[in-house]
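Q: What structure does this chain adopt?
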Amino acid sequence: PAGRLLVVQQHLPFNVAQAEDGSWGGEWDEWDLLATNTQGGRHMMGSLNVEVLFVGCVRTRVPPEAQAAVAEMLAVYNCVPVFLSDALYDSHCNGYGPTVLWPILNNQIPDRHAGGKGGDGTHVSSLYNAYVRANDAFAHTIRSVLRVGDMIWVHGYNLTLLPAALRQTKLPAHCTVSFFLHSPCPSPEVWRVIPHRSELLRGMLAGDVVGFHLFEYARHFMTSCRRLLGLGENVGGPTGGGLCINTGSRRVTITVSHVGIDPDVLNARLRLPETAEHEGRLREQCKVGERIVVGGVEMLHPLQGAHIKLLAFQQLLENYPVWRKRLTLLQVCFPDKQRPEQSAQQSAENREVVRRIEEAFGPDTIRYFEVGAELDAKLWTKNTRLALFRAVDVLLNCAMKDGLNLLPFEYIHTKHSQQASGVVVLSEFVGCAHVLNGCVRINPFNLEHVVEQLDAALSMPPSERAARLSKDHSFVASHTTRTWLHVAVQDMRRTAALHASGEASSSRPTLALCSFGSEMRAGQQLPPLNVEALARAYVQSTRRLILLGLDGTLIQQEKVMHHRKMFHDFSDHSLPPPPAALHCLAALASDPCNQVYVISGRSASDLEACLGNVDGLGLGAELGFMQMRPRSGKWLKRELSPAQERWKDTARPIFERFTLRTNGVYMSWQESAAIWCYHNADPDYGRFQARQLTVALKEQLKGTGVSVLHSLSKCQVEVRIGAINKGVFADAALTEAHAGGPVDFVLAIGDDDDDEYMLSAVTARASGPAMLERLRGRLFTVAVGSKDYSHARFVCESSRTVLQLMQTLRDGRDASFRS
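A:
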């Protein structure tokens, strides 16, 4: 086999049992999607050319002293057990996942706090803590068996945090983590109700691949990431024909692939004599005779729609007398083990409707069975279900919400194998309704519509029934479990290949925009900054100029965006660099050999509030329009002509009009600029309005000497005087410093487009004959983060790397003083 695939589920697809002699054994679980005891178990995995391991809990309680023996027994079947304490296992099966997550994933918004007993939410925190511990236990077990190159495929809402838990420690090389959500993924308006919503999104995004059954679910997930995690324009986009989310450090592939059934397994079951015997007994017991059979199988839960089905059938018989002696409803319901109270209530409601139908239209009109009551639970098997489908002429599903339901697939294949006609009447809120285009779709929230469509299905000509069934069977036959498995493994292998080539990383190679002597040529890929070479040049120099950006350079951009959302135009909330960066700035600025500047687009008051206490530090506010030279303590302002002042009068009413129309935006007026910020607006509408605003401003301000820029990453539209930028400031600072004595070391670091002016100006000035030779090997222009092109000569990964660099220079300075 070419590698290994670890299939991780809440439970192993293997039922463990202890024999009377105390030994442990078991058999494959025929109800599991990825395992069946027909044809030897896991035969669907055979064509994947990988060794398959199953990882999950066992449903049977195994005492601690027997766990080693059970693990050894399961290893024969390529199963790896995850053993949880009794309390943690109970919470894992019945706690946060089914109580809090599952209802909201299915669009059930709680009346009060989600998941609390009695609706008060007091137990949510403890349930979530157990949910985290269970996911951590799964991660621990997986790490114990991982090898280089393994593919880890995680399934289900109970394990959304597992991808992130796996990455808490470094995985073996070339390992790929994929997560597949089998339930619906709600819209952001519903997802935001989930407690710990951001943690769950980040947990799934820790995977290399995130899969969904339908594009609708994938779209909701991507929109939630944009709206709740602020990923902005990085959400969505083609990558090998698929979708991706750029998290900032890497790309996560988003896939859409609907799981199917295994026709080989169903054919084997349909050929079994016991299936035919089940069908015969069912027809005899129900006294079907010549009646048309409408039927279905549902869980006893309100969302599954069995109650709506019974009401619709009752109304059909009342409104369409022609069907009263010609129809039988054959309905099977099974209990929801995780929600017994809801099951009991649903059962009582169903039985009341059944009683009314029997009294009004006779007992032969309806046959209602509940597993564990009228039907022995041990006798309700897949073969029994297939026998029921053979007897049913119209499959009716009235679910109000259901993510993965493969019973319509089984019904379609069963009728096709019978060479019999059959009609599927399917709720549009069931996932497979989006892929079965031959079915009759209904809105279960409109009972009259359900009755009308059911009557139409019953009256449908045989030719139309056959055509619809044939159309759906084409999809069922071509989109099988085997196909789904192959697509999933191909996605993981493709992603692993992208990782190996570096294409899955969000860090793209940055190319040089300008040359510097013989050391750098335009178009050449920029190398990472060599900190040792930088430190060596720093120590050996005596006249140094250091130019630094602020937001995104000294402060993480994520923190900057969070601060803007929280405090935007509030006073007394300037965001300073972290204490470690302030300490380094103070140390570097105190060196008489250094001139250190921090240049920012912030206002002078904001910049002084967060950096004014650093003695000896030079500041450039509003991209250099306001300047405070090192050790001066006074602000100097560039003079503006009357024409440069008048643009604000033109721009102000335009800004006011768009601000009035767009909730959540605010204006920031500076002496040389105006900034329209939409961090707190609806992200889609804010971006749309920003584009319209940019067009309007460019049209009205044409010829005034100002520039209009729309920054998607910063969520702002900015108008500034065109002659003011960081490049003008940096060129003046370098020229002035050199005039006081030859500069023999220059360091300029920045992260965004404004900083590119600085990097370009420094490179251009340093390339002149007056400085070129003296600065050879001592000019360090550095771009922070990933971009396509830059005027810099080097790149570094993030603001964390900048901090480490400054600490190195600080320590080198102290060492040189000591020597």
